[in-house]
């Protein structure tokens, strides 16, 4: 909500700059920022076109003689289609500065001298969509004669200074100038003078043509109408237009503009209908029938749901309640009789309809946050008053009631001592009572007890804590004295689980992977892609789009989208990971469990060409090495194994494995299936996913420092011929199981399959290292252990020792 300083001065005396006001209001809890219109613009004046003639060398240009308040008129060539003799217009003089660095200079246009420019509103800083429709494709014409040479920016309100309030959802009272005046006034100990709306009682008639009906008063607690007959629709005065476009509202005509003006003034949306266009003499607020169609004022058609609350006359839909009006009863220049509506609609219903039909606007924003039901009737009176002043109304009906709820102020009880105790202050009762008075609250003090009556505009307040908040923020957070904490103190820091998670993250960062953060919502297809645990899916009741319907069951789909996005932009070498939560919902449970996972995706080259290296594409073992490094930092007292599998449908059946810890499955690793890669437009990509919660729960090893060994190690190489289906991991496990206490390492260094090797077999070479930390190993001891290893391999795997 942008608060105009010139408008605010009508309520309270303003002597401070917008910067000072914005800073002061921000310190009370409503974030604010200063806005200065028309900065950098100059030499824009009012001009009076005294004559006009066609350009001799153009079929659309005109030569205008313009009085700009100087001794002699100036000549300006103008191409606007609506330029005419006698108009009062905006003139940019020679040397004038316009938005975006444009500068007007004297020159010739097709051989005719032009000493300036006649401007449209959009050319001097008003966004085109807020310019009155009549001036969209031409220059702006002042509705009344103005003094020539006067500052056009001041007349148009484009030198105004404003305070932009970024309100929180609970402070909807500041979405109107009246409420904002109370808020800013309280900050400076100034009570606003708000004039009560009145209408000419001589024009009020008891009879009315229309009746009103509300089907569900819980959704529509207040619905009031007034008929205004014999109106003359025309252009609004400039003072109203400029206040509207400075609030990002397009002026239309004096009826619609009056309704919008009241919305900005009171924070209460007002709707105007052409009374003669109603299908019946009855207006009903009801839920729409599924499939009913509704046409907006811009001819866009919407298909309604049974959850949409609508205003209707017979089968004619006048609008979606609190959201948008229909073209059916729009007020136009030919309108003679008007029906004004002021209401309170259920905020949740308005929000859902606005979201469902993508029609969020100024009115729906206010209904969503809440409007003051104590202002509904007076806002309608104010709108009638403005229409009467601007459109020369012949008669005004009495209030037509569809539903009406008594506006009851909230009464809160508290105590001065308790307020001071919770604030940590020692304010006197007079100081606290003064703060309540500044806010417009009625307060009664009885000893230490205080009873505060809250006006209906502050419907965000209901308990004593709200009173305390008001006292402290008006007193000033900046006035609080800093104190040291007293009593027991606890040492800050992360939990053990958070420390563990951070360690895993840092390991992957250290290995060159980049961290990404993805949405937790996926489409139905994506959420099933890597649902390895076959968990029940969790669908949102009101998803934003079809692509964001379900809570994820794996981090991999999001990573694949990241890979596809980058590779589509020729960034082929990708190494990324994400550490976040997936949602696991068991059968019969309403809410899913949030389980932390860490997942990665690697594609492209792991090394690139350089003077001493050649490029190398990532393979399964590169990614397995990353995972092994990651698992080593878990410090788990567990034996990790990689068990080949073809059960994960979207992974390559020959290059995927489950990862287990002492037989417990904690994750998986593998290459994406070729068909899955093709469907998602990605190159060869390897992925892994680990359950962080399960890794954290594993028993931890005790880490002890050991001195460097004093005695040398002894190595042996072992070459075997084995059936190709036997995994190397099985061989290594058996080597360690039979190698004795001095075997410290066993690494595969050779794999060969091809000629000179029996069909269905492979040749493996292992490097074994033995070491005794306390003595020098003898060949006899090493050979004995080596023989045991070979015998075991022959017996268990039928290997041939080579």
From TrEMBL:
**What Gene Ontology cellular-component terms does the record carry?**
phenylalanine-tRNA ligase complex
Give the chief site where it resides.
cytoplasm
Say if the entry is tagged with keyword Magnesium: yes
Query: What cofactor is needed?
Result: Mg(2+)
UniProt entry keywords in alphabetical sequence? Aminoacyl-tRNA synthetase, ATP-binding, Cytoplasm, Ligase, Magnesium, Metal-binding, Nucleotide-binding, Protein biosynthesis, RNA-binding, tRNA-binding
Q: Which SMART domains match?
A: B3_4, B5, FDX-ACB
Q: Which InterPro entries match?
A: aa-tRNA-synth_II/BPL/LPL, B3/B4_tRNA-bd, DNA-bd_dom_put_sf, Fdx_antiC-bd, Fdx_antiC-bd_sf, NA-bd_OB-fold, Phe-tRNA-ligase_IIc_bsu, Phe-tRNA-ligase_IIc_bsu_bact
List where in the cell it is found: Cytoplasm
Q: Which Pfam families match?
A: B3_4, B5, FDX-ACB, tRNA_bind, tRNA_synthFbeta
Q: Which residues bind Mg(2+)?
A: 460, 466, 469-470
Show where the TRNA-binding domain sits.
38-153
Which intervals hold domain B5? 407-482
**Co-factor binding details:** Binds 2 magnesium ions per tetramer.
**UniProt domain FDX-ACB: residue ranges:** 709-802
Molecular function in Gene Ontology:
ATP binding; catalytic activity, acting on a protein; magnesium ion binding; phenylalanine-tRNA ligase activity; transferase activity; tRNA binding
**Its domain of life?**
Bacteria
Q: What class of enzyme is it?
A: ligase
User: GO biological process annotations for this chain's record?
Assistant: phenylalanyl-tRNA aminoacylation
Q: Does the keyword Translocase apply?
A: no
Q: What is its EC number?
A: 6.1.1.20
> Which reaction is catalysed here?
tRNA(Phe) + L-phenylalanine + ATP = L-phenylalanyl-tRNA(Phe) + AMP + diphosphate + H(+)
Q: How does it assemble?
A: Tetramer of two alpha and two beta subunits.
What's this protein's family per the entry? Belongs to the phenylalanyl-tRNA synthetase beta subunit family. Type 1 subfamily.
* Protein's UniProt name: Phenylalanine--tRNA ligase beta subunit
What is the species listed in this Swiss-Prot or TrEMBL entry? Companilactobacillus tucceti DSM 20183
**Which gene codes for it?**
pheT
């Amino acid at each position: 909500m942008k608060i105009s300083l010139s408008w605010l001065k009508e309520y309270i005396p303003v002597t401070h700059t917008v910067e000072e006001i914005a800073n002061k209001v921000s310190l009370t809890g409503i974030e604010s920022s200063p806005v200065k219109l028309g900065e950098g613009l100059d030499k824009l004046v009012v001009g009076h076109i005294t004559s006009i003639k066609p350009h001799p060398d153009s079929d659309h240009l005109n030569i205008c003689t313009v009085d700009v308040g100087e001794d002699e008129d100036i000549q300006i060539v103008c191409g606007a289609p609506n330029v005419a003799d006698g108009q009062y217009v905006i003139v940019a003089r020679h040397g004038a500065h316009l938005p975006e660095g444009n500068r007007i200079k004297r020159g010739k246009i097709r051989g005719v001298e032009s000493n300036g420019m006649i401007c449209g509103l959009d050319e001097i800083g008003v966004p085109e969509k807020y310019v009155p429709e009549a001036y969209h494709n031409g220059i702006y014409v002042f509705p009344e004669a103005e003094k020539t040479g006067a500052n056009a920016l001041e007349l148009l309100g484009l030198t105004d200074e404003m305070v932009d309030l970024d309100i929180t959802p609970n402070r909807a009272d500041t979405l109107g100038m009246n409420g904002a005046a109370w808020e800013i006034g309280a900050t400076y100990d100034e009570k606003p003078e708000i004039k009560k709306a009145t209408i000419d009682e001589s024009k009020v008639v008891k009879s009315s043509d229309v009746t009103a009906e509300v089907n569900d008063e819980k959704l529509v607690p207040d619905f009031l109408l007034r008929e205004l007959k014999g109106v003359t629709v025309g252009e609004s005065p400039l003072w109203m237009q400029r206040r509207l476009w400075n609030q990002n509202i397009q002026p239309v005509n004096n009826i619609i503009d009056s309704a919008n003006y009241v919305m900005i003034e009171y924070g209460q949306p007002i709707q105007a209908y052409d009374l003669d266009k109603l299908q019946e003499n009855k207006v009903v607020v009801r839920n729409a029938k599924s499939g009913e169609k509704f046409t907006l004022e811009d001819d866009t058609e919407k298909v309604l749901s049974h959850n949409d609350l609508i205003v209707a006359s017979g089968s004619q839909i006048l609008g979606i309640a609190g959201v948008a009006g229909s073209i059916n009863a729009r007020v136009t220049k030919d309108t003679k009789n008007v029906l004004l509506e002021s209401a309170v609609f259920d905020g949740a219903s308005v929000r859902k309809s606005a979201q469902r039909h993508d029609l969020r606007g100024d009115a729906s924003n206010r209904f969503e946050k809440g409007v003051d039901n104590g202002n509904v009737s007076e806002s309608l009176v104010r709108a009638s008053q403005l229409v009467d002043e601007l459109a020369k109304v012949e008669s005004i009906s009495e209030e037509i009631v569809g539903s009406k709820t008594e506006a009851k102020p909230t009464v809160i009880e508290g105590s001065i001592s308790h307020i001071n105790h919770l604030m940590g202050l020692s304010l006197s009762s007079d100081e606290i009572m003064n703060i309540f008075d500044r806010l417009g609250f009625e307060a009664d003090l009885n000893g230490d007890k205080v009873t505060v009556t809250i006006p209906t505009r502050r419907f965000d307040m209901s308990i004593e804590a709200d009173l305390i908040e008001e006292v402290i923020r008006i007193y000033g957070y900046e006035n609080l004295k800093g104190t040291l904490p007293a009593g027991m103190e606890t040492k800050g820091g992360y939990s053990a689980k958070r420390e563990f998670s951070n360690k895993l993250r840092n390991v992957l960062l250290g290995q060159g992977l980049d961290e990404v953060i993805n949405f937790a919502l996926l489409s139905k297809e994506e959420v099933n892609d890597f649902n390895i645990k076959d968990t029940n899916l969790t669908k949102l009741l009101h998803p934003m789009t079809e692509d964001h319907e379900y809570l994820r069951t794996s981090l991999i789909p999001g990573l694949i989208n990241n890979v596809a996005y980058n590779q589509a932009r020729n960034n082929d070498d990708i190494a990324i990971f994400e550490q976040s939560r997936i949602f696991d919902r068991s059968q019969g449970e309403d809410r899913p469990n949030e389980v932390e996972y860490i997942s990665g995706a690697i594609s492209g080259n792991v090394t690139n060409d350089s003077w001493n290296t050649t490029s190398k594409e990532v393979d399964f073992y590169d990614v397995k090495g990353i995972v092994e490094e990651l698992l080593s930092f878990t410090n788990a007292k567990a034996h990790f194994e990689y068990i080949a599998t073809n059960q994960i449908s979207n992974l390559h059946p020959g290059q995927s494995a489950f990862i287990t810890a002492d037989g417990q499955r904690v994750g998986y690793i593998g290459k994406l299936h070729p068909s899955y890669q093709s469907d998602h437009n990605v190159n060869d990509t390897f992925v892994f996913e680990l359950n962080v919660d399960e890794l954290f729960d594993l028993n931890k090893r005790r880490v002890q420092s050991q001195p460097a060994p004093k005695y040398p190690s002894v190595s042996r190489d072992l070459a075997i011929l084995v059936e190709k289906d036997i995994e190397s991991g099985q061989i290594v496990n058996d080597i360690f199981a039979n190698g004795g206490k001095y075997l410290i390492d066993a690494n595969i260094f050779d794999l060969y399959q091809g000629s000179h090797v029996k069909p269905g077999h492979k040749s493996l070479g292992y490097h074994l290292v033995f070491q005794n930390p306390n003595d020098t190993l003898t060949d006899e001891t090493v050979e004995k252990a080596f023989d045991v290893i070979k015998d075991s391999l022959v017996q268990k795997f039928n290997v041939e020792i080579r």
